[in-house]
Amino acid sequence: MVQMPDINRELLACLQCGYCMRVCPSYEETPWESITPRGKVYYLNQLSNRSPMDAILRRGVKVDDEFVEAVYKCTGCAQCETVCHVNIEFAEFWEKVREWLVDMGKGPLPVHKKLHDRIKETKNPYGEPAEKRGAWWPEEIPHSPRADAIFFAGCTASYRMQRIAKAGALVLHRAGVKLDIMGGEEWCCTSPALRTGQVDLTPEFAQHNIRQVETKGAKAMVMTCAGCFKTTSHDYGRYFSNPTFPVYHFTQYVAKLIKERKVKFTKELNVKITYHDPCHLGRHGGVFDEPREVLSKIPGVELVEMPRNRMGSRCCGAGGGYKSAFNDLAVNIAAKRVEEAVSTGAEILVTTCPFCVLNLEAGAKQIGSNIKVMDISELLLEVTEPEAKVPAAVPEKAKAATSA
Predict the structure, then answer these.
(1) What pTM value is reported for the model?
(2) 397 band by pLDDT with thresholds 50, 70 and 90
């Protein structure tokens, strides 16, 4: 008998209706029912109900490589959850199934194992040195003791998309926020490991990151990455402890600053933009309004929504370990999202996650689109530029003295 994970309720509840198939981004790229939520739940049911009769009838009901790949051919977007008639919480369900595969030694995929090992060894999935983690920090921002907020850039913004980390910190600095970072002591949030079923690192890493913020005496933590935000605010409590301080996504913190009249807009853009909801921030984290509130306050911006938005937002294709294992398919998914953005007539596609920016840029390049892909922090950086100082008029007496 195959030892099954604790998913019996979900397996019994599934109606095999197939609504999940219509919204599954990975199914669009690999149109085999075996990789759809319905197909995988059906197979899990067969594993759960396996009997000696299967061997007699030569039915190969087992956890083989094909099934393992099907489980990992999933972006973890959880849009299947939004259309499920029996309310199966698929976001946690698929992570639990992946954890089970890892426990049995059947998973993860080799590329995901490498990410795990790099995180364990270097505290980031890119294998970069810790001493370079805070190298992006702008010189004009002082490191404030007992800061208003610790700015948690995350691995991708620290090492690959540094322009987003810089933009976010500068925007907050211009609003008068006293900031600091953890630098080399900022460890990966462990989202890349968690999403692929590798949960062993999270307790230690969660404890480290939370205690670093507490030691610095900061009032809050601000995350620029949707995955970091979801992991820290929603997952740490399951494996270690909920943070003892408020955890904000960058957009939540900026929305708060705007309400407090601390953000000074100095420029008008006069541009049409559309907004992409990152899965971890939107569907998983429940943050839909604040990014739109911030965008609506930018002078001259016209915000137009894509047909699929908020809870029904189309995934960019980068999450759940999908991009690292199936990069070409991930870029295909991003390209479809970019096409949807282009159809609105928007000149800029704005999102709120470095990983989404990275993949959507690749999607735009694939289809030859000139739509600009930006993180919301980069947009805010443009419209909060310090006003140019006009030289004071020189008094007439001073002019006369100078000419003499």
Answers:
(1) 0.93
(2) low
